[in-house]
Amino acid sequence: MTTTRFAPSPTGYIHVGNLRTALMNYLIARKAGGTFILRIDDTDPERSKEEYVDAIKQDLEWLGLHWNRVERQSERLDRYAEAADKLRAMGRFYEAFETPTELDLKRKKQLNMGKPPVYDRAALSLSQPEKDALRAERGNGVWRFKLDHERIEWADGILGDISIDAASVSDPVLIRGDGQVLYTIASVVDDTEMGVTDVVRGSDHVTNTATQIQIIEALGGNCPRFAHHSLLTGPQGEALSKRLGTLALRDLREQGVQPMALLSLMARLGSSDPVELRADMAELIDGFDVTRFGAAPTKFDVQDLFPLTAKHLQSLPLADVADAVAAAGVPADLAAPFWTMARENITTLADLKGWWELCRDGAEPLIADEDRAFIAQAIELLPEGPYDGDTWGIWTKAVKETTGRKGKGLFMPLRKALTGMERGPEMATLLPLLQVIRARA
Asked: For the chain, which domains are there?
């Protein structure tokens, strides 16, 4: 069975970069009728916050990305310790005591010599008395996995065939000096024991994947299928890292972005398929193919979400937006005609409030000097209320016959006088909702 996972760290809110990974893994699992695991990477007790765990779940539920089960890495520390013991027994795990300053000096020396800045494995030559002395002086060291210096190869679902020389990569640190288990080993143990078959993540993990493949093999596990998607940039190709705080999913939700607009964009962005608004999750799942994505950096512009949001709202029946219409102050008996009028003239649901205020309070008329006599004459011809969908046509016909005006010269001054705007909803649907004129009539 296909099993995928999304493994966020609860150290902040989910942003669009995280969503890309979550969505791809979710769609792969659902398309195959498989399992999608939400795995909370909370092995860092100082930075992990329960409020962020709750926020992650809320954001995924808002989007409709429902998981089959939740796993927490903080509850699996015994499994990681057992794996570490197994690696030690195999001679693939060793303790190193270099300080960050010492490591930095080593890297600089290697670079000056034209060599790759790879850890030199000096710790492997330490005698037990030397280790004991360093431990007494500096405390516990870090634990590194000893890589086999051979080529690591896999067929990547997006990048194609990958081949990395393990000799060009430092032996990865899997456990810190304070005992904290790091992502690299925790993820390997979890993926192996949870039967994860497919892993999609950012291309910044490619080297990490290479080392994890060796760890999986050392522990006797089966490697999942890996695919590494491109990283998002800003609309001009700039790094998103400094802007991610404003691209948190909850911030986009506050701005009125609709879930299906966001999902439709993220399910196609960076692929060879055009971005198209999807009606529901079933369409997203059916149309997803991870092999259609490319390796080039992918430009993301938050402004692209708003036309999609507007288009999505236009397709919704009143029942789906009834709460938002009521929250804008629209009386229940006017909700249906109001939504018919407003739906094609809003970008987000927050815009409903402004349209209801126009209906309820009227607007400051925009009347050119040359139109003042015309508008006064037209108002005198306005039929008695109540108004309906035919009133606008009846009225403008009478005004045309009386004044001789037609086309834009007839309709535009009337629209500007009634709404204070040059464009907007069909006047036939708006006129019956204008409370001020209705009261005058």
From this structure: 3-67+186-233 (3.40.50.620), 80-175 (3.90.800.10), 244-313 (1.10.1160.10), 319-440 (no CATH)
